[in-house]
Amino acid sequence: MSLVDATAATRVAIPVKNRRTRVIAVIMGLFGVFTVFVFGFGSTSGAHSSFTFNPINLANAPWRVGSLTVVTRWTDVVLGVVMVALATEMFLRRPRRGVMARFGFVAVLFLLGLLFWAARTPGPSPTSSVNITAILVGSSAAAMVLIFGSLSGVMCERSGVVNIAIEGQFIGGAFLGSMIASTTHDFFFAALGGLFVGGLIGLVLAFLSLRYRSDQIIVGVVLVTMLSSLSSYLNLQVFTPFPNFNTGILAPNLPIPLLSKIPILGPVFFNQSGFFYVMIVLVAVVSFALFKTRYGLHVRAVGEHPRAAATVGISVIRVRYINVVLGGAIAGLGGVAFMATQGQFQVGYTSGYGYIALAALIFGRWRPSGAVVASIIFGLSVYLSYNLVTYNVPISLYILQMFPYLITIAVVAGLIGRVRAPAADGQPYLRD
Amino acid sequence: MELELRGITKRFGAFTANDQISLKVEPGQIHSLLGENGAGKSTLMNVLFGLLRPDEGEILIDGVVTSITDSGEAVRRGIGMVHQHFMLVPVFSVTENVVLGFEPTKSLNRVDYRQATEDIHRLSRQFNLDVDPDAIVENLPVGLQQRVEILKALSHDAELLILDEPTAVLTPQEIDSLMEIMRSLAAAGKSILFITHKLKEVKAVADVITVIRQGRVVGTAEPSASESELASLMVGRDVRLTVEKTPYDPGDEVLEVRDLVVLDDRGLVAVNGVSLDVRAGEVLALAGVQGNGQTEFVEALVGMRPVQSGTITLHGRDITNLTPRQALDVGLGHIPEDRQRDGLVLTMSVADNLVLNTPRRAPFARHGTRNLSAVNENAQRLVRDFDIRTTSIQEPASSLSGGNQQKVIVARELSRSLEFLVASQPTRGLDVGSIEYVHRQIIEHRNRGNGSLIVSSELDEVLALGDRIAVMYEGRISGVVDPTASRESIGLLMAGHTTETASV
Asked: Does the domain spanning B3-225 belong to CATH 1.10.10.10?
């Protein structure tokens, strides 16, 4: 019994050289090859892509940034080659860390390549151009909603409860939020309403899965279905005859002095609605609470090994109730944020954002920071899939719209990334 | 701490897990609680740790009657428990695990990890328990994980440590190291309650030994007591069982096992080169204290666990590494050790359970559909023939008593034509009537000229059923003797002494 024996023991490594890393590398490589041959050599040799960076609302841009014009073919070829290089590196070295980061980077490069390709014009003189700042601002709204959703998932799943009902909490928040915002013209009350309805749905989920130990996935799906039908019904009964309850009022932007004037970054980060800033604060708070505080340690212990937590006097059920209700409230707020940037509530309004948020949560490995990065990538691809049709893309809108969901399926099915959920995630807890 | 238990009784329905158990642990003493699996040791510990409430009896701490309502209460009273299945969060660091529930905090409710790490260093030095506070628990070998468990208990100021089967998961070197730790903790004035079924360890480390069997204290012993004495106390001799048998007239070898090596769930060698023969018209009884590889041996025989090396042949045909379905098809019958886990589907009806091993065969299935009338006829016949007490053949198996559940399994296995029967602890937990019944069925199977292997840790059962008795110890056969051998000599074999083998 000496120090030697202790350190020697810690050096025992776990063999996690998994084949999955190589599968991901191959997928990344295919993205790269696709970029080289379809986006690169697929565009005519003289084609150019041109970008502008000035915000649409020029009042917010005392600075003017020039436009950027590049040769489409070779830019995309270079992008593709970089992607293939990254894939090769990963295939050969099989790194243990940073697999998701590399994949995320390649996904961004791919979207960029797609953008270059979509923006191409036959000649060198830019007749039309793609506004990068507008794209970033547009996708920041989608990313924000996804971050709310995945943060909600982090809260619930870290304590061991799967929250499939995020979509339902979005719907509930958006519906009630629209009603309150339309009547009071105050988004603070709308936010409170969203927190309340999301928390309430969370409470139902917690009650059924903790008290009656129902299957959490099924309860979650049932809640989503129920809320989606309920909102359709209420939409018909309330919003259609009384349009004043659903005016489609948008939350005003609150530009931060000076910072909002920075080119590109300013409009994206510092000229947003209050919900965006709340979201940023929330990411920091959840991160801090989960990884630095006593409460967070208890939450993670409960999500990993509830019996161990119980033997040291932590109430597993209580921790789970608290987290599921708080997580629900966050998703409810996300629903209001969605409505505050999208306008009028409609049937099928949130179109599966809740499930994409779940995928972002998994992709981000159950960490708030990871969820943010994943949400940004997903947000970008959601936005692009809806907006690429305005560019020169000969692909059906509906095919493009499948893209984020395809990634979602791949992530949720565990095809991409070393997925390691909290060990007790989704497991009902039984006291003997 | 001085701990005294007075007349602790704990019942689960009709089953009495602890029956009037009394014992006393003195400060600085290593008190060993010795007993077989299922003897009621873990129940007693759960009572002591506040996880279960006793029906009768009282717990005295330093002479004061104390009621322990939950484990938090037990911890506050200075009772620390090192669980058999560690209560550690695998992805947490050592520090996080040790402080969990008792975190030192600074502002904003933050955990003060620097303070925590210092505390761990201090404790490790004090009790000579080296471990890196920043290591992630799942990366540590089991022995060190256990050290973390002990540190965790000590950090809560435990004065009495309960070690529940602490050596079950350790390598021999780690066991030596644990013994060392236990001695030094005792020397520092801590009381230790050491629960185990391993005789050697008890003799090596205990100051006082209490032996329990079927929920009752059956004796106390000094560590100077011989292992065979302890073994016979543990497995008991209070019931003498006799079974009518026709004279032993063995035929040819039916089952031949050669140099079998099988691993346990943790990947450690559980069966270490076992060779056995069983002949027609013979019951070979495999005796031994539980946990010496019998379970893994049987699971390997019936295709429930892969064989690492060695061969198994049945009537000269290689049956090594069959799937369970293939094992059924070659005519192996299996009465499993854990009847509720491996023997029955508790939620299914008695009738369905009675055809669990032959659902795809005529007459129970035809053209891929089930023939329910044949299933029901079969059930009615077996319920009558084997005297299974059930209100209806459509009742779920879970509604039957333990003895009747076992009869369902015995009826199912013995009602088809078998080449060989493997029965593991076939009468565990049964009442005397059911025991007799099951024994008679097994002997009838033998009298028809079939081979059987019966695994039992009950010495009486082994002596009553076996035509020859093989004793297993630490994954090996320590000897094969005739049923006329003395209990003492079998006890010695069970304790790992080897003798001249009578015949193999």
From this structure: no
